[in-house]
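Class, discuss our next protein.
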Amino acid sequence: MDIARFFDAEFAEHAAVTAATQAALSQPFARLVAMVTEAVQQGGKILLFGNGGSAADAHNIATEFAVRYKRDRAAIAALGLTTDGGVLTAIGNDLGFERVFSRQIEALGRAGDVAIGLSTSGRSPNVIEGLRTAQAAGLQTVAFGGGDGGRLGEVSDLMLIVPSKTAARIQEMHILLGQMLCGAVEVELGLVDLS
């Protein structure tokens, strides 16, 4: 294997997907920032969830909101529904793995909150069920996906679909978009001055 060639090819693909994502998602991203900002201003919270790498991304983004992104500021209510081992294993064992997010949304979600589900394929049954439950409860639903979006359009008020079929590139864009969301919401709420 030619490591240098592999290295360059990965960076080239990353750069191409970054450019395509920037071109495709400017308007949906602006809508997302407005949606989350309004929810937070009205006392709502952000619930994020996904599987595997997407679970880690959901947890990371929730942490950035709750703690801080760029500078110290007031906390923003956000939860990653991917980190409580007791809750996840109890739901998985007692109710089934497809309900690990929907059951938490039943417990924690309220009308006016924003539920953000991450699924690179758009076909994760538990993410789809979580978004479906959120919609039924009056939460605003957002999907971060990739490729053709899978089934996310069935259960999402807003979709940010990365134009790639490569899971690694999709996840790279998801964490970038999530961190950008944190920074933009901080500014929109007047919690951080960029000057």
User: Anything to note?
Assistant: Helices lie at 3-41, 53-66, 85-94, 102-108, 125-136, 167-188. The chain has six helices and five strands. Residues 146 and 162 are 4 Å apart (CA to CA). The chain has a mean pLDDT of 97.
